[in-house]
Amino acid sequence: MKRCTFPIRLxxxxxxxxxxxxxxxxxxxxxxxxxxxxxxxxxxxxRAAERFRQLAEEMTGGRVRVEVYPNSQLYKDREELEALxxxxxxxxxxxxxxxxxxxxxxxxxFDLPYIFPSKAALYRVTEGRIGRELxxxxxxxxxxxxxxxxxxxxxxxxxxxxxxxxxxxxxRMRIQASRVLDAQMRALGAQPLALAFxxxxxxxxxxxxxxxxxxxSNMYTQGMHAYQRHLTVSNxxxxxxxxxxxxxxxxxxxxxxxxxxxxxxxxxxxxxxxIAQRTNDEALEKIRQAGSTTIHRLSAQQQAAWRRAMQPVYxxxxxxxxxxxxxxxxxEAEAD
Length: 336
Prior knowledge:
It comes from Massilia hydrophila. Residues 1-25 form the signal peptide. Belongs to the bacterial solute-binding protein 7 family. The protein has 336 residues and is α/β, with parallel strands linked by helices. The chain is 49% helix and 17% strand. The chain has one domain: D-Maltodextrin-Binding Protein, domain 2. Strand 1 (31-36), helix 2 and strand 2 (64-69) form a beta-alpha-beta unit.
């Protein structure tokens, strides 16, 4: 029996050493953050996601690796939030309207027509008490909100000029899934159809829908303008995003590392806001240069007619979104 003691002890030592080496190697492996989004890399959101990747990896000294998946490579609009909650991805930047199906309908206030008279008004809401409180309402859903990212104000497009509310009558218009946007299009006399972002350009090409609304950068990078002969710079609505993470994953990170990533997100957010308007202006100019789309700009009188036509949306959505939330946002936005 004694002759077996040494080999067994040696084997135990070797096993312990191997386990220690494996644990050490595992501890050195970077923490992977899968960041999925549905738009092209050359959009405000796409460029900011890449900027966050660079900052996060540099500022953590490689302890974190961010994998960015643009253009719905992993998930479409309707799938990505469930994937985040299940932990299949760690980070998203969905449009604000997508939180309503989770039961957080207050975010639909951002879809209300003409609710923000300027970017300054918008930032007073997103960077202030109201914005922070809205993000906190995501936590019971297993989501932590990190920042608001800006895309910009939306334009309308179709294969006919859209200058008066009557011009929308009977048109099939693509929208993202939002009860507010559905009501907006119906107020204009259009027939709204909710489609995933990645399905929009093919739907325009094939005539499934006749028009849509979006920001210039999204329209240009997806090639939507190639199938739309007319575009109206209406600035009737806002498109923004919330950068969110899986709460369990985020809370499980070491505190110091989490703070470093928060700083990286702050810098990426400042970068995103700086490039958003410029990116949309450049996209609109590229659409003009393409020569296939006539660009219209509303006069003050025409825009007033659009506002009057869409005003009933507020009354319809008060109970759904919450009258107090809508009033608080309008009060903050109109504080100029």
